[in-house]
Amino acid sequence: MTEKSSGKQRKGPPHGVRADGRPRRASFSRKSLRPLENDAEDGALLYGWHAVSEALANPRRAFRTLLATENAARRLSEVFHNLPIAPTLVRPDEIDRRVGADAVHQGLLLHAESLPALTVEDLARDSFILVLDQITDPHNVGAIVRTACAFGVDAILTTARHSPAATGVLAKSASGGLEHVPFVTVRNLAGALQTLSERGFLCIGLDSEGAEPLADIPVRRPLALVLGAEGKGLRQLTRERCNVLARLDVPGKIKSLNVSNAAAIALYAVTSRLGAPTA
């Protein structure tokens, strides 16, 4: 049975307005949100403005879900005329619950497909790449990716094991660099270095006991700069597969550097002498 209208006007404030005249806060539905507990192993979780906005601007990315606070969604709409995925509005604590209260997510959490990794054979003949030998700290790797992007590195080569996934903390630390510096993932690092040498790459390993300062070594393309983990440094077989071992000479009393800082100094020292690629 259909209820007849009484013809009376609805009493009270208009829709969307409080009784005191202030606008109502927008309500958020949680029904459209699904648990993301296993997403770190399935695709990539990207949070923070730079990581998310660079991913959204990358035509090679595919997307699953985008969670955004009202302010963040408004900011996205001001930058992107056509977002590739519609955001689901949430409160900030909804994102906190997924990435941790200490994560600086800036109101954005994007679940995207992982970018495809390259192979050694995909590298151009005049490439300049970084090789990471079991650097496992995602903060360090992310910082290295960000610096590599700034210095125009063509790719980063890592192993499938003993390397952090390109998601979460690493992606946030990379500050959007993941969208511009592709990864080459290999099973055996020593074998990959051998292949690089056979393809004409000059493989320079950074080692505190290197025979020569990096600044004194002639550099050319194609070039692979090899970095080892903090404390352990380069593994023995990795050292043997490098064409030359070089050290960073610093004038201060503290000679040891964080690996991401060492990468930045080495990249500056190399790129200032390397020249632009031919293509």
TrEMBL record:
One of its GO terms (molecular function) is methyltransferase activity. Pfam families: SpoU_methylase (PF00588), SpoU_sub_bind (PF08032). InterPro entries: Alpha/beta_knot_MTases, Ribosomal_eL30-like_sf, rRNA_MeTrfase_TrmH, SpoU_MeTrfase, SpoU_subst-bd, tRNA_m1G_MTases_N. Residues 1-34 are annotated as: Disordered. Residues 45-118 form the RNA 2-O ribose methyltransferase substrate binding domain. The keyword Lipid metabolism does not apply. Its EC number is 2.1.1.185. It is an enzyme of class 2 (transferase). The keyword Transferase applies. Keywords: Methyltransferase, Transferase. PANTHER family: 23S RRNA (GUANOSINE-2'-O-)-METHYLTRANSFERASE RLMB (PTHR46429). NCBIfam families: rRNA_methyl_3. This is 23S rRNA (Guanosine2251-2'-O)-methyltransferase. It comes from Pseudochelatococcus lubricantis.
